[in-house]
């Protein structure tokens, strides 16, 4: 191989494969920067277009022809024609549907995340945080994930949905496997992941679990979202049992994985620059700015996708109807053409627009709750442990899309 060949820049395909490599999980941002140099780009053989600038991602998220239903993609239609099951897990959650189904289902689910409901949850969230922090002692090592960032969102989403906390270990394992299913492994490699059968089994188990819980709530309603969705169905809303299961399945996975990541990523960013940690410990009101900058700087959802519902022109790329559009959100939020000092963690950044919760009709309905949980947890943790410092290297889960820490050892 010649020197020129050795120094050849990686192709977009090679960089996307590198992005999937677990070795990049601790710091994927250099790879994102390399991808950004080559995008926007269309990979015709994969019916895939990749975007990483803020302007392009913003336009796609707002575009009326952007579809969220995977079955509208050319790749899915090809798989179905070859005999693949269209929806192996059953009906999808509303996040993966287009209007009018998306509109109808989201309208019912959003009642659990209204400002009134979220505000009413604040005393309970504060009590949960106090209970978790009471178990931690200054000067003793603890794990931010296991001792706070994970149990808090899990308890809150279980309370909202009406899922018994005693069953948490079972659905936690299932949801972790399903979260990996959001990674663009098939789109990038054209191959199925090695643990596909395990994911299918986990998905089927979780659906069965929720289906049984729906039937239990139908017989014995309680003050939770499952009972409310059943009541809406029985009031003539045409919400089927499978749609209730799909909605709860979506909220259960999305409702804790992302908030765990948000809390943990914020703690890590501050502990790497202790002046931010000390500033928060002295002034709890800084928590909101810390949360917004974390959402930009190290977002819980690193990438997302849309399907071109019609021929679309995004920036310099023409995307044919049916192509999948991969949106590199984490790269877009470090776009130097949109942000000053994009690679610097700066909670005082103003204005601080980001795409972490999406835009348009699919804007994350759980955003107010995630912000509240993170603000309360971070301010309480920093107040109790003003001298906290990391004691070892953070360890990451294998996820690409919902990238997050598996452990973060700290001494208070």
Automatic annotation (TrEMBL):
One of its GO terms (biological process) is lipid catabolic process. Its cofactor is heme. SUPFAM superfamilies: Cytochrome P450. One of its GO terms (molecular function) is iron ion binding. The keyword Metal-binding applies. Belongs to the cytochrome P450 family. This is Steroid C26-monooxygenase. It comes from Mycolicibacterium brumae.
